[in-house]
Fold this protein.
Amino acid sequence: MRWYWIDRFIEFHSGRMARAIKNVSLAEEYLHDHFPGYPVMPNSLVIEGVAQTGGLLVGEYNQFRLKVVLAKVPHAKFYCEAVPGDVLTYTATIEHIHPHGAVVKATSHKGEILQAEMELVFAHLGEDFNNRELFDPGTLTHMMRILRAYEVGKAADGSPLKEPPEETV
Amino acid sequence: MLTQEEIYQKVREVLVDALAVDEDEVKPEATLVGDLGAESIDFLDIVFKLEKTFNIKIPRGELFPEDVLTNPEYVKDGKFTEAGLAELRKRMPFAELDQFARNPLVQDFANLLTVRDMCRFVELKLQQQEGQASA
């Protein structure tokens, strides 16, 4: 089982910005109980989807050589609910990138309507973790492939985004 | 070069933003951990925000020389040795260490930095940067 909270990328500009969509569907189990008779997507899962959009963007910048984890959500504001039938568009922009991590600013839109905005801090896990695997090799590039990042992605020079060499991921 | 007051105002904005505290809580003598409630992950956020605000680079270990803590020459029985304190003074010229040096317990080290120390840290970084640019 994988923890996917986005359906596909529609834009991916290496080191800069990524945009992904999430289709909210009543077929998703969590909506049956949250809440009974009043299905609404929990805001924490919107944050998770935005963090996946931004986290893959930050990870790709380093060719997935560094282990990226969501460390902090300094700000998150929600303006309206996400409900079954909505298509959320998550836009994540790298504000600052550093050897220890990155700051990402992000929004979630329902069509033209701003649904949420937030700031996320990602950390690169230090050397203590470098010998420990968080993911099976190739998991993140597999995720990028499933989410069609390599179909729409652009490298920093504007050329099509390529998968990193296998031995690095 | 920014004045000390300008640096203080900007550091204050960074801390208000990163730690979700009120502006009037951020006084020069306030400690980041004890008074402002900073947790370890907040220091990452603070470092990123300082870099962006002041256009400086802060390498790992510069604000908190963590390696000193694990060096047996510098730390014995949960306390910094004389050599350890000398190393801290060398590595942290921005920090007010005199009071800490009276009873230099490792467990108190994390609560050492004050808002004033942060301002001094930024000031030194900006001076260094200016020195490098004119060299």
Summary: Chain A has a mean pLDDT of 92. Chain A touches chain B at residues 71-72, 74, 95-96, 98-103, 121, 123 (CB under 8 Å).
